[in-house]
Amino acid sequence: MKGFTLITGGAGFIGSNYAARCIERGEKVVIFDNLSRHGTEENIEWLSDRFNRDSFTLIREDIRDAEGVKAAASGADRILHLAAQVAVTTSVTDPRTDFDINAKGTFNALEAARASGRKPAFIYASTNKVYGARETVAVVENETRFDYKDLPDGVSEEQSLDFHSPYGCSKGSGDQYVRDYARIYQLPTVVFRQSCIYGTRQFGVEDQGWLAWFIIAAVKQRPITIYGNGKQVRDVLFIDDLLDAYDAAFGHINTVAGQVFNIGGGRDNSISVWMEFRPMIEAMLGHPVKTRQRDWRPGDQPVFISNIRKARALLDWQPKVKLDQGIRRLFDWVMDNQNLF
């Protein structure tokens, strides 16, 4: 099959949403996924029910299988590389598997793109964790949140890299490999250092997808653990806005190949993980939410806000879904699909 979009990790939260967008446009889509994560089989069923099973190709294989990835990429015009081990805590307990999936798996995807001979446009979903804990950046503590003392627009792409945790190292390794393949092999690659992405079809767990996890746990009356004082701040980005960013990068690939972008909600869509989020979820539920508190987790950033000026300038992109709108949409989806959790 020639001329298609390959989505590694395409049965996950982000991948299935982007697959749906591509299918809606009449594009050919190949999903490469081992279906190991909770929710992936449900996402494939959702795509099949929404569009019919013949509207996309599913290759149930592992990103660690170099030959399998190579075969899947043959003929691809675009590759969105999302396949990953996504939890910092898991990387600490099992760093070898984390390395094999994130670092080696990304290398496999790049080599598959290079071997195809077609120079497919290649987007890599990196992470803001490549900037590390950033202990030297001045932070102030306010009533409901931490904030930067001297970075009103947040962290730019010029910030020094400081891989922290095995997860940070493995994703950071892929980040730099993707960037370098544009320089050395002239592959049209783009790196997205993504902040907290949230939205419908997100099967969040405590270790990953915190905003979705808090909503799911609150709705299902499951225990919620708050690490630290709950004033930690993150910029969050609704899934539709992320998909717009992917489209923008693919659409501008001739001018942005080799570039790195911070992709997040920016200051306008920043929120403290519990002190500011808690009133929102309790208002939607109509009753208080019980929590338990634990010590800070190692390497947890008091605040991370992406400076997204570069993406605005070069991709003509910016978030459209406001924080309260996105959280309401995710809450409504969880309420309507409680049987999935």
Describe the structure in your own words.
The structure is a single chain. The protein has 341 residues and is α/β, with parallel strands linked by helices. The chain has one domain: Rossmann fold. The protein has 12 helices and 15 strands. α7 packs across α12.
Using brief descriptors, characterize the structure shown.
alpha/beta; Rossmann fold; 7-stranded parallel beta sheet; 4-stranded mixed beta sheet; 40% helix; globular
Kindly report the average pLDDT value.
96
User: Which superfamily, in CATH terms, is the homologous superfamily?
Assistant: NAD(P)-binding Rossmann-like Domain
> What portion of residues belong to β-strands?
15-25%
Largest beta sheet: strand ordering: 3-2-1-4-5-8-12
Oligomer: single chain
Q: From the alpha carbons, calculate the radius of gyration and give it in angstroms.
A: 19 Å
* CATH-derived topology: Rossmann fold
Shape: globular
Total discrete domains: 1
Order of helices and strands: EHEHEHEHHEEEHEEHEEHHEEHEEHH
CATH class: Alpha Beta
| Regions with little confidence, pLDDT below 50 for 5+ residues | none
* Major β-sheet annotation: 7 strands, parallel
- The appropriate CATH architecture is 3-Layer(aba) Sandwich
Our count of helices gives: 12
**What structural class do the secondary elements suggest?**
alpha/beta
Please bin the fraction of helical residues.
Answer: 40-55%
First and last CA, distance: 36 Å
Total number of beta strands: 15
Gist of the model:
With 341 residues, this protein is an alpha/beta fold. The protein has helices spanning 13-24, 40-51, 66-73, 88-93, 95-116, 165-184, 210-219, 239-251, 253-256, 277-285, 309-315, 323-336, and strands spanning 4-8, 29-32, 57-59, 76-81, 121-127, 139-141, 146-148, 189-194, 196-198, 225-227, 233-238, 260-263, 270-272, 292-294, 303-304.
